[in-house]
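Data deposition worksheet. Section B asks for the primary sequence of the deposited chain exactly as it was used as input, without tags or linkers unless they were present during the calculation. Section C holds the resulting structure in token form. Section D is free text for depositor observations; keep each observation to a single sentence. Incomplete worksheets are returned to the depositor.
Section A, Depositor: J.P.
Section B:
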Amino acid sequence: MAADILAEITGMLVEIVGDEHLLADEVTMKTTFNEDLALESIEFVALAELLHHRYGAGVDLMGFLSEKDMDDILAMSVGELVAHIGRITHASLTHTPLTHTPLTHTPLTRASAGAAATGSDG
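Section C:
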């Protein structure tokens, strides 16, 4: 799964910065966004948008970055983002939605309806 996510992120990065600046085989889990890729803030925004389109609102790159201090953001690797996406997508796959359970009820008869209306037991 991590290899698939890495390949998708790599494709997105190549799309953002252009294949003349980045070759797909240059991106590994240890590749850093700042030092190795020299990604600018506008490119992070573009990456966030592509991630949102691909993985949905659960993968919020800006929210993920907001939890980090500046040094952590500058040192962040592609692998950290891959792990984050893996956690989010795995959690959404294993989340089982609540199923609707029909309520059980006693059928309303004329006698019980009359009793309920008059306040008597029947």
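Section D:
The chain is about 55% helix and 0% strand.
The longest helix spans residues 78-94.
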